[in-house]
Design goal:
Oligomer: heterodimer
Helix content of chain A: 10-25%
CATH superfamily of the largest domain in chain B: Aldehyde ferredoxin oxidoreductase, N-terminal domain
Strand order of the largest sheet of chain A: 2-1-7-4-5
Number of domains of chain B: 3
Structural class of chain B: alpha+beta
Largest interface: A-B, 22 and 40 residues
Shape of chain A: globular
Shape of chain B: globular
Largest sheet of chain A: 5 strands, mixed
Low-confidence stretches of chain A: none
CATH topology of chain A: Ubiquitin-like (UB roll)
Number of helices of chain B: 25
CATH architecture of chain A: Roll
CATH class of the largest domain in chain B: Alpha Beta
Radius of gyration of chain A: 12 Å
Structural class of chain A: alpha+beta
Low-confidence stretches of chain B: none
Helix content of chain B: 25-40%
Distance between the termini of chain A: 45 Å
CATH architecture of the largest domain in chain B: 4-Layer Sandwich
Strand content of chain A: 35-45%
CATH superfamily of chain A: Beta-grasp domain
Strand order of the largest sheet of chain B: 2-1-6-3-4-5
Amino acid sequence: MTDISVQVVYFGKAREAAKISTEIRSLSSPADVKQLLSDVLSAYPALAEIRHIVQILVNGRWASEIEGLKDGDRVALVPPVGGG
Amino acid sequence: MTLGGYANRIARVDLTQGKVDYEKPNEDDLKKYIGGRGLGVKYVLDNGPKVEPFSEENILCFMLGPLVGSEVTMSGRMAVVTKSPLTGTVTDSHHGGWSGARLRWAGFDGVVFRGKAKKPTFVYIENGNVSLRDASHLWGKNVHDTVKAITQEYGKQDLSVVTIGQAGEKLVRFAAIVNENDRASGRGGTGAVMGWKNLKCLVIKGSIKNKPTPARPEELRKAVATANTAIVKGAVTAPRNGGLSVYGTNVLMNIVNEIGALPTKNGQLTQFEHADKLSGETVKETILVNDPTCHACPVACKKEVEVKDGKYKVRMESTEYESMWSLGANCGCSSKEAIAKMIEMTNDYGIDTIETGNCLSVTMEASERGLISEKIQWGDPDQMIDLIHKIGRREGIGDTLAEGAWRAAKSFGDQGMANQVKGQCIPAYDPRGMQGMGIGYATSNRGACHLRGYTPASEVLAIPQKTDPLGWEGKGKLLTIFQDLHAISDSFDICKFSAFSEGIGEYVAQYVAMTGVQIDAEGLMKVGERIYNAERYYNNLCGFTGKDDSLPERFLKKSGSGPAAGHVCDLDKMKKEYYEARGWIEGVVPQQKLRDLQIIA
């Protein structure tokens, strides 16, 4: 197993809950979104409150939890937002 | 039958003759077109297509829907409807605040202006009466000074001022009409029509004691409670908790950028490396000072900011997504402080921030390509501020830009530089990164617009269901549903953001209880379809066809960047699907469809 590094960005209320806007996280490969979220929720327990409404973007594309991650990927946590 | 909610009074003001007549709105028209946008479109259609925007024959309609000024949540909007001097199409532009509610409380469903006053004029509206007054002492003032002068004379209690600034007086083709100092009917140049008519402002005095009378009060109370619950519990709209409430519309900046749909440097790119510096999150952490709201709205999505010192010192509202984008990523500018200052300027001059930003980005691209002699750097805030002054005053190059980005680009030597549809420039979504917005812009009846059919609700927010922003299939049909739904909310006239938490069921319940009209969801959607088709019919009569449902070449041929790399907008495929869903023939509404929708006999 090798480690991979992914960039995690937090938007909206996810940023408020994690109190961080972006970071690099290491995961053991093979890794998927679900693993990353588990790590992130451990690090920032306040995110648990909004976990059920947060959507995930991987490299700018909507992704499910089973989506695999590779070294250098960028993962965004996106709570519900609206605007015009 | 007298419908509930309405004041049953429209003022018809002939500015040439200097007289005011009053009429009861036709009940059949109210049932078929509701009010607000719909009724205004009906009036513009009846007025005939062969009028020039800058003419005595063009009408300028300030219209309310039957829910405005009531206890219905988010019911504080007013529609301004006219023939646009920017596009030559019918246009409707809406603003929030309190002027809509106060106009209803003053006893009106609408005020329609025709003609041209011999000298600067304003109207004072109170207790069912519209009087014309001399505005010579106001002419030449920008918005804030006009509001100051009026409130010094008439007081602030129960008063709204709906005004143009210098830009409207000077016929800047995208001049706005501004109320409450900072809330604008921005798009389409309605302020220029007002300025051409020598009409400076509407001063509206109306007390909440005169709220409209519903047809079924108890039923309305329950319907409002249900709708309000949806709003306060909604993940997007929950007061002080939902994303829209906490961060304002500018919460979209990072997300739209992340998916590669943020038009950057006049659409040369679709991602901006400094998007986070302009975002709602960053604004909240740094310069946000208050969350103003509108009549009957708990969401409070407005964001008032303060730059405490330095050359961009300002306290203003609001750092909306569209304004932060148009003067930000679109121009390559990353200073939120400078942009706050610029938004304040556009509010004060009374100009559409979206079109203003596009004018600036066209100028920057023209300079970059050596098409003009002026050296205007991408993202230089001081040059941008100077250009905004010049636009508002029609000075120097500002006189060219005041004609709109499309006409300016043409005079610079390449009209393809302007990211426009039917003469109006795009807002903050790039169709290469968000396909639904491509068909939305192209088929909008008022020129490029995201609000006619807000497909980002589906492509970004998964409302009502999630769709892939880079996929084209199904977007044409999806768009027709959004367009018809928004035509309804624009005609009620309640805030479109209610649709993030309410659905057609809540809309029907409140409309039926307020007016007493018997209608179900399908019937109400039919009304929305009628309104959308009536606008299209008017535009067809003005000479617009499917060939005008187009997009700038760069969206069709040049790849996006970031996640949209390799993607262009698949407009033709979506247009085919859209026209089939609409029943149109190459962008033209067939006669039988007009009869089926009861637009013509």
